[in-house]
Amino acid sequence: MIREITKNLYYVGVNDNTKQLFENLWPLPYGVSYNAYLIKDKSNVLIDTVEYPFNQEFISQISEVIGDEKIDYVVVNHMEPDHSSSLVQLIDKYPEIKIVGNKKTMDMLNGFYGITSNVYEVKDGDKIEIGERTLSFHLTPMVHWPETMMTYVDGEGVLFSGDAFGAFGSLQNGIMDSDADIKLVTDEMYRYYSNIVGKYGGPVEKAIEKLSSLPINYICSTHGPVWHDKIGYVVEHYLKMARYESEEGVVIAYGSMYGHTADVAKNIYEALIEDGVKNVVLHDLSDVDASFVLRDVFKYNTLILGSPTYNSELFPKVADLTVKLEGRMIKNKTFACFGSYSWAGQAVKRLTAFAERMQWDIIEPKIEIKQAGLDVDVKALSKELAENIINSINNL
Ligand code: FEO
Fold it and tell me: What's the 121 CA to ligand 1 centre distance in angstroms?
């Protein structure tokens, strides 16, 4: 896709509607875009590339914009292969091109592609004049890899932000935020952030603060729409995610082998709805991919996990989710748990230990049933739990 964003500054990225799993892990029901940008000036500059299978489409789009002119620089803001794996083909087509990156980029250029020549190393704050424009480079390590940096265009206030402000979803309706279905983009932005960048809240917040003095009219990320009309909106949401701040709401996620743990989950769900809690979502972890649960955990402030005891451990789907939550070092959650067992209960104990490690606030009661739990008043306990959760939300 080609689109002129500002005069002589073009989008030249691609939509990928064929890949099933991003990083071979995360489902892509709405596809994904690999965004790259071309600035036509006295020196022509490309910002990032696209994933390897799309290199021909990418290079032919570049030719459509600049014809027989050469490209002087390609700026590599991020080395993850979804943005760098067309570099070799790009160099084949434009052998004189200079590759701009920082010290850490250089090491990765060599390690991934054996590229050591025609490189141009920049440091934090360095500038390159390319004609009417000046580009400046801002190192933003761990957003999302150690070499990540952002590139800023003076005057027009364009920020090429790498993965920051990115979202899953291909750009079917057009590349600008004004073209997008904002509810869907927001959902896919939360899923992208929580799945891919979620561990790096500190570096994301630091990067946003570092760039806050720059006037920004366009945010050009490596995935998802170009932000222009809704810059305040996307920055606000990214800051919230980076700080692990969330809105009022409850995520109930559970595993269940024979339906008994699921019954407890449904009782808790109904009690919360009856008591008027906003935004209650129920996820059966055998039915839904964990990426959607992570999205909702980043959105809402309360998490209730339920699990049967399985081989004296957590049910594997629940255990897997706890590993993903712990890996993202998620802070500021209110937590409750429930579980079941057939002869020796371990699930509730393990879920409690998990929440203690995460330093989350644990709300009582913990509902644990043996076998079908016929002797337990699950409805009454669910009501009590719902009321305690409401009190905790009101006290936040
Ligand atoms: Fe889309 Fe971290 O790369």
Answer: 21
